[in-house]
Amino acid sequence: MKKTGILFGVFLLILSIPHERRARACSCMEPPSVSVAQSEADAVFLGMIIDIADMDIRREVTVDVHEAWKGIKTKTIKIYTGHNSGDCGLPIEIGESYLFYANDWSERSDKGFLTSTICTRTATEANAREDLVELGVGKKEFTQAATSSSATSHSPWFAPTILGSIALLFLLSWFLRKKRLTKGKG
User: Fold this and answer.
1) What is the overall mean pLDDT for the chain?
2) DSSP per-residue letters across the chain
3) What is the full DSSP assignment across 44-73?
4) In this structure, is residue 65 part of a structural domain?
5) pLDDT tens digits, 82-106
6) 162 lies in some domain
7) FRET pair for 13, CA 20 to 30 Å: which of 98, 145, 172, 182?
8) Residue 44 lies in a domain
C-alpha cells in the first residue's frame, strides 16, 4: 500500500511539471484573392499598431482602427499573432499601419479573440494598395470603447500545474494523517 501511494505521488508530480511546447513550423498556401479573403475573414480593417505585448505563446497587438470593412465596431482593438514567422506570427512594428484580415480563434470559447498570421493577406498599408482599391471605402466611425478580450497570458501548463499542486497537497495530508495514525497505534 505504501509503494502504491508513493508511485501515485510520483505520477502526480510528473503530471504537474511544465512540459515543453511542441515545436511548430509555419507552412502557408498562397493567399486567396481579396474577395475570397474578405469573405473568409471574421474582420477586415486598416489600423496602426499602438502597442505590442509579448505573452507566453503569442503577442497581443493593440491597434488603432482607421477603416473597417468587416467585423469591427470599436476604434481600438486587440489582435493576437505569433512571435515570429516560425509560428506564423506577423512581422509587425509599433507605429506602422496594416491592412488586417483576422479570424476568431475557434479553439477558444470566448468570441472576439481575433488572430492574424502571415498566412493571410495581412500586409503593411504600403503593400496593400491593390487590396485597398478592391475593398473600396470602409466604415470610418467607431465607438470609443476598446474591445477587451478575455484571453489570458497563462502558460499552457497553468491548469495542470494547479491541479497537480492540489493533488500533491491532498497526497501529503493523506501521508501525514496515515503516519499520525501509525504512531498512535505503536
Assistant:
1) 79
2) -HHHHHHHHHHHHHHHSPPPPPP-----PPP--HHHHHHH-SEEEEEEEEEEEE-SSSEEEEEEEEEEEES--BSEEEEEE-SSGGGT-----TT-EEEEEEEE-TTSSSTT-EE--TTSS-EETGGGHHHHHHH-S-B---BSSPP--------TTHHHHHHHHHHHHHHHHHHHHHHHHHHHH-
3) EEEEEEEEEEE-SSSEEEEEEEEEEEES--
4) yes
5) 887 677 888 899 999 999 999 987 5
6) no
7) 182
8) yes
